[in-house]
Amino acid sequence: MHIIFVCTGNTCRSPMAEALLRKKTEAHTVSSAGVSVLFATPAAPNAVRTMQEYGLDISDHRSRQLTAEAVQAADRILTMTGMHKAVLCKLFPDAAEKTETLGEFAGHPDRDVPDPFGGSMETYRACAAEIANLLEESSL
Length: 140
Fold this sequence. Notes:
By secondary structure, the protein is an alpha/beta fold.
């Protein structure tokens, strides 16, 4: 199964989710992208440091815009918020059936993953913990 995690700029939440799922299982192909990426940028420094605390290295990550090709290739698309899901489904209506928020996928339809961008290490740690908890509660 090919899973894509989607957030806004693909520098914080979705690359952390991608790394955390890769650590959890090798049974899936995992990638990430953003709905609003203007150009490739590295992962946020605090995201890199937070993932290092999990024993993961995302220092080579570069943000990617979500493309029609990526959407078509995915078996499941997991967004960080309901807003990301709404934008994605508007841009790619044919992907609606395979798109849900990570919270929905984990059985918590009202739970979005808050954006840590620009926040402290504690904010990034809390975000990563939320992602890790939702992944643990999901069927992945």
